[in-house]
Automatic annotation (TrEMBL):
Protein's UniProt keywords contain Coiled coil: yes
Protein name: Exocyst complex component 5
Protein species of origin: Lipotes vexillifer (Yangtze river dolphin)
Sequence similarity: Belongs to the SEC10 family.
Matching Pfam families: Sec10_HB, Sec10_N
GO CC terms of this entry: exocyst
Gene for this chain: EXOC5
Length: 708
């Protein structure tokens, strides 16, 4: 049986169990092994083993049944014990409730007894205390202080408590009967108060925080407690301002005091607030006054810079102090301190700002004009000037003599940058120094000064001077520099617009002044655009006038009607060459002077006028066959020049003109076919006829008959 048990291994696998049994049986090996395979012997072993297993199974089954019976018996016993414990627990819980009720009853009795004892003891203690005070009061009546508490300096704390109570009692006594004793008590009260303050001062110098806390707690009930706080604040500041930066020194001082004041006083937030108030009202106010008063009347620029710097540093210090516990409304407390320092300077700040900005802007402009040796002329205002302006806008005629400015635009980017920089600083100071309710109004005043000096006194003056410098359209070799004025004016106005958006808008965005500023800006833009349009229009007229002069001087009648038809060697006329060269130069100048859609608009207008000029110019001549070919070559060159405009309308006009010139050379039999072509079909018949009439052979009966 033991051998059978050995064959069982965990985990149990039936196949492996049979294998182990076979290998342990003699004759159970495979054929050819050390022992021959004996099936009978193996069968016999299997039968015996099965019997052993059956016996083992019966034995194990009996053991299992015995264990199950034992388990059921123990479970019943355990259940019985649990029931007994539950009953015991219920009994214990009842006893506990009875005990708790008894304890509560006893506690109530004890509390009642304690109240009775306290009711008896408190009057007794008060009587004892009153007896002691009467004893000490008698010593003051006798005029001799014998008690140890008054003579021993180490008992100053107890003496202070007694004298403080006697002082309160003395206040209630009639003066006529107890004047002398009241005076003695008051004198002793004052002496002890002074001793305590001296003791506090000495402890502070020795950095004895615990002693300072004890003395401060005693002085808390004395009238001189505030003097103790003053002494503490005064000594804290001794040697605190050693750097050149008083604001940094003040911040470090407050941080240091904030760490220790809670260990000394019972009301640290009040003491710290009083220290900060002392720093602001004495140290900072004195420093600010010294810095500002010396330059307030003599140097406005330095005064404004110093005011802005000092106010900024003060508000930064205030922001650092906000992290300390200063009571309930520390924001209002610190704001009032700042206001108390700067109120006299902020009341008239904007007057100083605008006055300085005006004088500074005027000086910048005058310095520029002086550098150009230019005496600024008066543009003039009023009815006559307005009438001239309206006439000039409607008729585009130059009113008054043309001014030779020698190509000077009287616009300076350096001047503009200086003006904008001054205004930017003014906006920054305005934002910092203005009351929130006055900020939009003050910012608007600064904006109007910028408009006056930058837009009117500088840009508008340059435009007026530029308009006056534009020659008449029939002038020869005119210097058309107004486009330079346009270019610089555009650049300057972009800078002006950027400052408007970056620095003015944030100050007025939520106020009614926003619409007022936008309206003023719109009026300035419209006024300048009107003058720019007028100047550009007159400049284009001058360009066309220059082309007319070139054509009149260079174009000859024999160009299109040569004497020898067979000996024409040129590809296009000299007039065409010079006009195209002039046009290309002006187109390049326009592209360099403008940006965006303005370039296309001006080039389209120039292109249309250029086309009209060439169209009218060609109508002045009579064309032979070779002359017509030369005219076609000229127009082809003009069309090539028109491509530089990159304006579809202009190129289309010259394409049509080129097609019209074909009528000058086409065979009479093909005239009707050419006129009905794609480019000429939509033109008025009179236009076509007018070009056909320019042919030298027009009067021949054959040509007239074909075109009729």
């Amino acid at each position: 049986m033991a051998t059978t048990a050995e064959l069982f291994e965990e985990p149990f696998v039936a196949d492996e169990y049979i294998e182990r049994l076979v290998w342990r049986t003699p004759g159970g090996g495979s054929r050819g092994g050390p022992e021959a395979f004996d099936p009978k012997r193996l069968l016999e072993e299997f039968v015996n083993h099965i019997q052993e297993l059956q016996i083992m199974d019966e034995r194990i089954q009996r053991k299992v049944e015995k264990l199950e019976q034992q388990c059921q018996k123990e479970a019943k016993e355990f259940a019985r014990k649990v029931q007994e414990l539950q009953k015991s627990n219920q009994v214990a819980f009842q006893h506990f409730q009875e005990l708790d009720e008894h304890i509560s009853y006893v506690a109530t009795k004890v509390c009642h007894l304690g109240d009775q004892l306290e009711g008896v003891n408190t009057p007794r203690q008060r009587a004892v205390e009153a007896q002691k005070l009467m004893k000490y009061f008698n010593e003051f009546l006798d005029g001799e202080l014998k008690s140890d508490v008054f003579t021993n300096s180490e008992k100053i704390k107890e003496a202070a408590d007694i004298i403080q109570k006697l002082h309160l009692i003395a206040q209630e006594l009639p003066f006529d009967r107890f004047s002398e004793v009241k005076s003695k008590i008051a004198s002793k009260y004052h002496d002890l108060e002074c001793q305590l303050i001296q003791e506090f001062t000495g402890a502070q110098r020795r950095a004895e925080i615990s002693r300072m806390r004890e003395v401060a707690a005693v002085l808390l009930h004395f009238k001189g407690y505030s003097h103790c706080v003053d002494v503490y604040i005064k000594q804290c500041q001794e040697g605190a301002y050693l750097r050149n930066d008083i604001f940094e020194d003040a911040a470090i001082l407050c941080q240091r005091v904030n760490k220790q004041v809670g260990d000394i006083f019972s009301n640290p937030e009040t003491v710290l607030a009083k220290l900060i108030q002392n720093v602001f009202e004495i140290k900072l106010q004195s420093f600010v006054k010294d810095q500002l008063e010396e330059c307030r009347k003599s140097d406005a620029e330095q005064y404004l810079k110093s005011l802005y710097d000092l106010y900024t540093r003060t508000t930064n210090l205030s922001s650092k102090l906000m992290e300390f516990n200063l009571g309930t409304d520390k924001q209002t407390f610190l704001s009032k301190l700042i206001k108390s320092i700067f109120i006299s300077y902020l009341e008239n700040y904007i007057e100083v700002e605008t006055g300085y900005l005006k004088s500074r802007s005027a000086m910048i402009l005058q310095r520029y004009y002086d550098s150009k040796n230019h005496q600024k002329r008066s543009i003039g205002t009023g009815g006559i000037q307005d009438l001239k302006e309206r006439i000039r806008q409607r008729t585009n005629l130059p009113l008054g003599p043309s001014i030779d400015t020698h190509g000077e635009t009287f616009l300076s980017q350096e001047v503009v940058v200086n003006l904008l920089q001054e205004t930017k600083q003014a906006f920054e100071r305005c934002h910092r120094l203005s009351d929130p309710s006055d900020l939009p109004r003050n910012a608007f005043r600064i904006f109007t000064i910028l408009v006056e000096f930058l837009c009117i006194e500088h840009i508008d003056y340059a435009l007026e001077t530029g308009l006056a410098g534009i020659p008449s359209s029939d002038s020869r070799n005119a210097n058309l520099y107004f486009l330079d004025v346009v270019h610089q004016a555009n650049t300057i106005f972009h800078l002006f617009d950027k400052q408007f958006n970056d620095h003015l808008m944030p100050l007025i965005s939520s106020s009614p002044k926003l619409s007022e500023c936008l309206q003023k800006k719109k009026e300035i833009i419209e006024q300048m655009e009107m003058k720019l349009d007028t100047g550009i229009d007159r400049t284009l007229n001058c360009m066309i006038g220059q082309m007319k002069h070139i054509l009149a001087a260079e174009q000859k009648k024999t160009d299109f009607k040569p004497e020898d038809e067979n000996n024409v060697l040129i590809q296009y006329t000299n007039a065409c060459v010079k006009v195209c060269a002039y046009v290309r130069k002006q187109v390049e100048k326009i592209k360099n002077s403008m940006d965006g859609k303005n370039v296309d608009t001006v080039l389209m207008e120039l292109g249309v006028r250029f086309h009209r000029l060439i169209y009218e110019h060609l109508q002045q001549y009579s064309y032979s066959c070779m002359g017509g070919m030369l005219a076609i070559c000229d127009v082809a060159e003009y069309r090539k020049c028109a491509k530089d405009f990159k304006i579809p309308l202009v190129l289309q006009l010259f394409d049509t003109l080129h097609a019209l010139c074909n009528l000058l050379v086409v065979n009479p039999d093909n005239l009707k076919q050419v006129c009905s072509g794609e480019q000429l079909a939509n033109l008025d018949k009179n236009i076509l006829h007018s070009f056909v009439q320019l042919r030298a052979d027009y009067r021949s009966a054959r040509l007239a008959r074909h075109f009729s």
